[in-house]
């Protein structure tokens, strides 16, 4: 094969047979048969001499494990549209790619500078061994190595880097063994995926993406030569560290390729003059939307283990839409400052705001914001802060009553003083602000958030039934059937509340609420598939009746500050101690829970209510999210049979 044939094939992106790299035929003055025969003879002599030494190395690693060896690989977390949010890796940041997906330019450049006899030796290079031995003998110490590419691979995978004679002999023995079980393509693929390129970048693909913002398959000759020149001292020769030094290394590689007649002088000159557009050091980039990625990492670690996540090359598609997430983050940040200025918080940093948004059609989490500033506090209040929802819990009680078929929005309940035995005393519920309304409809009781009817109804239908409904809605936090449960005397997270209300928005249909849509390994094999599998868990008439009633909360009840230009339903929540205020509401396309409180659990300012302070936050976010969404109406209770 001529040098021209090599050049013609160097830029092909299909798999290249190793015959392409029979470089000995490109040397010119020495025939392939002569050089190959001499090389193999030398290899046999040296290899024979090593047989006796090999007996002393019976405890060396078994290179056969490399038949199924896969280097550790970086895992990536993406949003629902494929935008990268976070890369996770252990010591090595690496992307593993197949041999055919690596540019021939890079294969040639690396072999030229690291091991130009790679295709003809059997693991060791006799000529290099002799030269290194003479140089070391003359100096009285190890000053020159004779490592082939295969020996480098052995050293990286199996041995420690000390420059001792015993270790060098072990390298040689293992290299010969390795050449017996893997062909040249496999060895070169393994090397190019294993080698260190600086800045915690391992493997050709990761390095190419960072240095030049492109895949290893697309590297030009100029870029490939610069990358090959880094291998001997990656941090020192890095173009990010010293661009001129990187250019000198590039020139050395190109000159070596010309000397080997693998490229022409004209090609080398063209490569030297080609402008290099550098990328960015990406190995240590910070996470986008860390409240999201932190929650995803926690879930993946619990399911697969930390080692699989950090080394297994997982590809994780989250359910979060990055544009929606950024919208939610900015909303929380802006409103936290606004609420502090309005006097809601007693302390700016202790005062916090959290938001969780769930799509009722899929139960996919679209956004979670665990606080006003992740850099100030990494605690994710949207998924981890269990706080009392107050009256925002009442819809679960009223739905349970509707589902019995004995109650509807117009059913009359009594709002008068009542007491129930509770331990050694009596529990007497009171309405916010005191007073009684007498006989009222459930619709009215919900709209103005009366406490006594909710407690009375809870006793009539049975609190264990309410807890059963909570479990159907995906609430996993502990719940005790205490008398005050209908008033929200249970600790729940904003994400649990948003997920529960999402089933009201979908007329009782529910999939598991999740942040993760799918997980695959680096080869595309599915490890986890959370494709929505909706099932009907609630009575359609009861959910439609509840939604119809909750619309009144926004239209003329405690949450008029949440009113939109379209049908919306929701419920305010304010604990009696005013430590927590909520608004949880929904339209057919989205369910959103907003919570505000202090991390140290001190009360908010006097008179703080969910309708007065956080319902406007909910409205602001929903207006932004729905700006380009069509108006959708809820289904009417008249469309369904009453139980």
Brief sketch in words of this structure:
The chain has 643 residues and is an alpha+beta fold. Helix content is 41%, strand content 12%.
Q: Sum up the overall morphology in one term.
A: elongated
Spatial extent as radius of gyration? 34 Å
Uncertain segments: 1-56, 141-145, 161-165
The total of beta strands comes to 18
**So how many helices?**
22
Largest sheet: 5 strands, mixed
Strand content: 5-15%
As a percent range, the share of helical residues equals 40-55%
Looking across the biggest beta sheet, what order are the strands in?
2-1-5-13-14
| pLDDT averaged residue by residue | 84
Determine the N-to-C terminus distance: 83 Å
- The computed structural class is alpha+beta
Set down the secondary structure blueprint:
Elements: H1 3-10, H2 32-55, E1 75-78, E2 84-88, E3 93-94, H3 104-114, H4 126-139, H5 149-158, H6 165-181, H7 184-194, E4 201-202, H8 204-212, H9 221-228, H10 234-237, H11 243-259, H12 265-273, H13 290-304, H14 306-311, E5 315-318, H15 322-341, E6 351-358, E7 365-369, H16 394-403, E8 412-415, E9 420-422, E10 425-427, E11 438-441, H17 442-447, H18 451-461, H19 463-472, H20 494-505, E12 509-510, E13 516-520, E14 526-529, E15 535-536, H21 540-556, E16 569-574, E17 580-587, E18 590-598, H22 610-625
Parallel strand pairs: 1-5, 3-4
Antiparallel strand pairs: 1-2, 5-13, 6-7, 6-18, 8-11, 9-10, 12-15, 13-14, 16-17, 17-18
Helix pairs in contact: 2-6, 3-9, 3-11, 5-6, 5-7, 9-11, 11-12, 15-22, 16-18, 16-21
């Amino acid at each position: 094969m001529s040098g021209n044939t090599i050049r013609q094939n160097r830029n092909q992106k299909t798999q290249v047979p190793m015959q392409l790299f029979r470089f000995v035929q490109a040397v010119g003055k020495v025939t392939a048969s002569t050089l190959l025969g001499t090389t193999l003879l030398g290899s046999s002599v040296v290899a024979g001499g090593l047989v006796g030494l090999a007996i002393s190395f019976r405890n060396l690693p078994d290179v056969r494990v490399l038949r199924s060896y896969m280097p550790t690989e970086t895992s990536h977390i993406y949003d629902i549209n494929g935008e990268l949010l976070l890369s996770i890796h252990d010591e090595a940041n690496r992307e593993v790619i197949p041999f055919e997906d690596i540019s021939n330019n890079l294969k040639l450049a690396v072999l030229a500078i690291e091991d130009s006899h790679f295709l003809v030796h059997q693991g060791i290079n006799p000529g290099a061994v002799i030269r290194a031995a003479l140089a070391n003998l003359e100096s009285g110490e190890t000053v020159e190595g004779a490592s082939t590419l295969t020996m480098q691979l052995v050293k990286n995978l199996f041995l420690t880097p000390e420059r001792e004679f015993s270790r060098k002999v072990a390298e040689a023995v293992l290299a010969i063994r390795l050449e017996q079980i893997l062909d040249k393509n496999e060895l070169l693929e393994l090397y190019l995926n294993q080698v260190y390129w600086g800045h915690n970048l391992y493997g050709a693909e990761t390095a190419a993406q960072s240095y030049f913002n492109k895949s290893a398959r697309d590297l030009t000759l100029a870029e490939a030569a610069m990358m090959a020149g880094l291998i001997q001292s990656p941090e020192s020769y890095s173009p990010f560290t010293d661009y001129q030094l990187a250019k000198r290394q590039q020139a050395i590689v190109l000159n070596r390729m010309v000397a080997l007649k693998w490229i022409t002088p004209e090609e080398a000159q063209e490569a030297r003059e080609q402008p290099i557009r550098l990328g960015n050091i990406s190995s240590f980039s910070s996470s986008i939307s860390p409240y999201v990625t932190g929650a995803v990492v926690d879930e993946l670690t619990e399911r697969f283990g930390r080692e699989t996540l950090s080394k297994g090359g997982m590809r994780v598609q989250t359910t979060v839409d990055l544009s929606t997430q950024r919208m939610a983050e900015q909303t929380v940040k802006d409103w936290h400052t606004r609420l502090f200025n309005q006097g809601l918080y007693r302390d700016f940093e202790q005062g916090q705001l959290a938001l969780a948004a769930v799509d009722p059609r899929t139960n996919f989490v679209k956004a979670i914001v665990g606080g006003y500033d992740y850099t100030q506090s990494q605690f994710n209040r949207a998924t981890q802060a269990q706080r009392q929802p107050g009256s925002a819990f009442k819809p679960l009680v009223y739905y349970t009553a509707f589902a019995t078929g004995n109650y509807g929005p117009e059913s009359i309940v009594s709002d008068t003083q009542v007491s129930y035995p509770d331990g050694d005393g009596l529990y007497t519920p009171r309405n916010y602000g005191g007073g009684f309304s007498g006989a009222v409809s459930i619709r009215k009781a919900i709209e103005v958030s009366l406490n006594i009817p909710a407690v009375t109804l809870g006793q009539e239908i049975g609190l264990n039934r309410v807890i059963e409904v909570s479990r159907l809605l995906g609430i996993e936090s502990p719940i005790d059937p205490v008398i005050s449960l209908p008033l929200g005397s249970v600790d729940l997270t904003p994400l649990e509340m948003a997920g529960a209300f999402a089933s009201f928005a979908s007329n009782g249909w529910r999939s598991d609420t999740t942040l993760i849509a799918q997980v695959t390994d680096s080869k595309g094999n599915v490890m986890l598939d959370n494709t929505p599998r909706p099932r009907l868990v609630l009575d359609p008439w009861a959910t439609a009746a509840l939604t119809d009633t909750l619309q009144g909360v926004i239209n003329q009840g405690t949450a008029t500050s949440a009113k939109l230009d379209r049908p919306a339903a929701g419920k305010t929540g304010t604990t009696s101690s005013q430590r927590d205020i909520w608004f949880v509401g929904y339209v057919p396309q989205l369910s959103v829970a907003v919570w505000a409180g202090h991390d140290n659990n001190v009360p908010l300012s006097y008179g703080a209510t969910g309708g007065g302070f956080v319902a406007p936050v909910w409205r602001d976010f929903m207006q932004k999210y729905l700006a380009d969404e069509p108006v959708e109406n809820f289904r009417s209770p008249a469309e369904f049979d009453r139980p």
